[in-house]
Amino acid sequence: MKRRDFLLTAAGAGLAPVAGLLTPAQAASTALSLVAEPVTVQILPDGNPATDMLGFNGSSPGPLLRLKQGARQAIRFDNKIDQDSAVHWHGLRIDNAMDGVPGLTQAQVKPGHGFDYALTPPDAGTYWYHSHNRSWEQVARGLYGPIIVEEASPPDIDRDVVVMVDDWRLMETGGLAPGYDSMHDQAHQGRLGNYARALFDDDSTVQRGQRLRLRIINVATDRVFPVKLSGIEGRVVALDGMPLSEPRAIEEMLLAPAQRVDIIADVTSDAAVSVLAPLRDGDYVLGELKVEGKAKERRTSAIAPLPANSLGKPDLANSQDVLVKMEGGAMNPRIMQLNSIWGLGGRNDINQEPVLRIERGRSARLRLANETLFPHGIHLHGHHFFEMSADGALGDARDTSLVMPDQTLDVACVFDNPGKWLLHCHMLGHQAAGMKTWVEVI
Q: Could you tell me the pTM of the whole model?
């Protein structure tokens, strides 16, 4: 990966965050409204053309939704774009009927129509929402936004900042390039952008000595983002919304599309807190929070674990084991037998039989075997699972796992949420071209 992959020649070097990209959170006690509609956003630095996109409530990303753990929240979705759409609440273990997957949990929402969602999130943490109809196009065009499910006892911090990393395929006119259904893209790494940046929900300045919570979300359609941070010292406290039992050191991160990481850290720089993409020819600044002044009081307490969510541990002695192969893609001989570009678990469509049918409350071990030349971010709806080490020990809880070429990764899950749940690659171009199946919990 080189710097030119991220930057349009005509764009210049500036990457100042766009103020007001995210609207203020609305009160959780009232019904919320999300309206999908055309928007115009200044993605490129000031002085360059604006970009016509899709968004929610007049912006892309859409508004930050703050939900209460365990509290029911009604959300009205209205579709004012020229395509069918729906909203998926990524990472939330909610009722199946509210999951937002046309053809599996609901009908498509036609232009000019709406759908009433009702969410009761059981887990605190960092999540996000996005379109799940033609998602490889509609997410690329801007139909997504962040979700915070608040802890009953939040950590002691000064600022809570959402950081979304994304890329766009832009023309020199500032417009989004066409070709969302490119078979070449779908057979390779997906629709990679030529311009990338970090978007902050609050881009105001910070002070040296302040304690921040940074919630980093990879909202890109297909790009696996390398990310590192400078100007802070702290600990990683959660992955994909699930708190770590013990905070760990901040290292360079490799985030698949849809993965999240929460960091609590103290500002140590006098200049900026920087979100960087480490590339072969140097670090590329995705975005920065400028530092002005010093905090009056500096926290000296250790960074403690976040309150644990109630996630069941798998019963591996009585688990149902399933091999889920990733097959196909460019330069793969299996592509001729798949009747599609990609396959997952021997399937390529949700109209086929599920890869797993399992009784509610039972555990399963999924062996994710990547037999392709490309990485894949495998996402399971409605559940979190535990990544397993080579010796069979349970590791981190996640809802999306990055599986590299020729890698096999075992994940274990308690399937305690009844319904029909999508299992797919979150490189959305791969999903569009067949890397999808489903699980039924009965």
A: 0.93
